[in-house]
Structures are given as C-alpha cells and as structure tokens.
Amino acid sequence: MDSSAPNSFAPPPPGLNYIEAIRPSVTMLMIGSVWSAVLVPLLCVLFFFSTKDLRRKPIFILNVCSILLGIAMGLLNGVKAILTPLVPQPESNFITFASLVVAIPIFVESILVLRLMAVYPWKTTPLATHLAIFTPLFLLKIARVTNAIVFIVQYKSLAQGVNNPIASGQKSWRTEPGQKIEWFLQVVDNSVTSGLFLLRLQGGKKLAGMSGRVQSGSKLSSYSRRLKGLFWISVSNFVFPVFLSLCQLIFIFRDPDYLKGTYIFLTNDYVEIVGVLLATVWQAGTHWADDNSAPRSTVSSLPTVRFRSAATSREQTGANSIASMPTRVDDASEIAMDKIYPQRSEEKMAISWPGKNSASAKAI
C-alpha cells in the first residue's frame, strides 16, 4: 500500500453535492413523513368508531384539527427542501413551519384540559376545588401563548435576509430565551395536569376497592376496565410528553446543536397528537362496543319467565287470575307474590293439605 496516500478522501463528484445539501433536513423529513403516515389511519379509525353524538363534541373536533395540523407540519417539514435542495426557501415557509411547531403543543394540551374537565366535572366538583385546579392551568396557557407570540416575532426578525431555516434556527437556539421558557412552562403544565389526572385515578381505584364488596362481578370488571383505560390515557397523554419535555430542556442547556433538540421537539409534538388521538379512539371504541353489545346483554340479563294468556288474566279472578300471571322460577319472586296476594298462600296451603280446607281445594 502506498504510504504517500493522503489522509483525507477526495471530494465527491459534483452530482453528489446534493446529498450534503439535504443531509440536515433528511432526519426531520423522516420524522415528519413517518408520523404523518401514522396519523392518516388513526384518523380513519377515529371516524369509524365515532358516533354522531361524539362527532358533535368539541373534543372530537379539536382532535381532527390537531391531526390536520400534524399532517400539514409534516408536509411543510422538508418537501421543498428535498425536491429543490439548491433553491433558497422563501422566508414565509420556515416561519410558518416554526409557528406550527410552537403552536401545536399548546393546542393539543388544551385538549388535555378538556379531558381533565371530564374527570373533574363541573356539577359534582366543588367550586373552590374547580377554581384551584383550572385557574393555574389557564394562567399557564396564557403565559405559553404570550411567549409563543413573542418567540415567533423574534424568529421572524432573525430570519429576515437568511434563506436557510437551519441557520436561523441555530441562531435563535443560542440567543433567544423563548424556547427555554416555552419548554420549562410545558414541563410544569404537563406535570400539573398529569398529577391531577393520576390523583383522580387513584381515588377511583380506592372507590372501586370499597364498592367491590357490594357490586356484582360484571359491574366491577367493567369499572376496572375503565380505570385501566384511564391509566393508559394518562400515560400516553401526560407522562410521555413530560419525559420528552425534560429531554428538550436537557438538550437546550447542554448541547449546542440545534438539530438534535429540534428532532426531539418534533417527536414530542407528534407523540402528543397521537396520544390524545388514541385516547379519543379508545373512548369512541368503548361507546361503540357498548352500543353494539347492549341488546345482547339486555336479553341475557332478563330472568327466566313463563307467561300465560294475558287476555284471560283480565277476565278471571281469584285462583284463575293468579294462575294466569307470570310464574317466576326463583323463590324470592314466589314470596313477593304471596305478600301481594294473601289468598294465594291460602290456596297453596289448600293444595298441600286438601283435607284441611276442602272448599278451597274444590275451588282450585
């Protein structure tokens, strides 16, 4: 082997320079395309399991809007950068993309507040408790919206005259505090919301344990299934975004690379959208299963009853009227009928001992 070979490789041919031009956007393009592809079948599943009543509710409409925003963010993520990598992107493109990236978490977490309001309903929750829960969350949302508006205005001023979104993003990563403030508020917001949700879930488990002594097995198992569903809702909607938000804070303080933090930020946006969507799909699927299984469960839960002619029961009296009424198999119903119709017990006595009451025996 020739020892005089250079330590550095020769530059690639001019045609391969496109790879270097699109390399920073490839990872973001993969994140946006994969997650956007996941949202499409989930949207179809949501419409399949939803009912007319559910489609009129605000949480369903907001879920559909969040899915459309996620798909739009995936389309703006890097399509033009891949199709025309050497053409400078207009300023409006990456300002719109940055606005979506910042606004989607606030919008999706507002849906989580609606879900939390369903766990703490207005009618059954005391007013003081309701205000203590939702006033801090409302103030956090106002602070996050204000910070997002300030960040977009500052980002727009940084992007003026710069046709590279990565360069403008790296500059804002180093100099602007808006991202740090937003992610810190996001951690606080998600932590408070998840804590309140899990606290309510723990109270539901205690209630299920106390009521399990008197409830039937079917009712208790149905309540347990709903508690498990609420647990997975809390994990997907609250816990995962908290962990990813902590990762964002670690990257923005420890790593100067703008792209790594942006990858986690994009992933967190889509995780929140998918988590809220899965919770709504689970709720819609539960209602759909209940509606489809309700006729079968109602029929199977009816007691065994033998009916006789209803027309003759209105005309006859005495023993014939009693004989024409429904005859239940269980002993509790027999005792109840004896209390309502005292003559029925006397007639039964006559049947058992005809010698003691021959007149009643002849009447029967």
Automatic annotation (TrEMBL):
Keywords: Membrane, Transmembrane, Transmembrane helix. This is Uncharacterized protein. It comes from the Eukaryota. The chain crosses the membrane at residues 26-48, 60-83, 95-119, 230-253. It comes from Pleurotus eryngii (Boletus of the steppes).
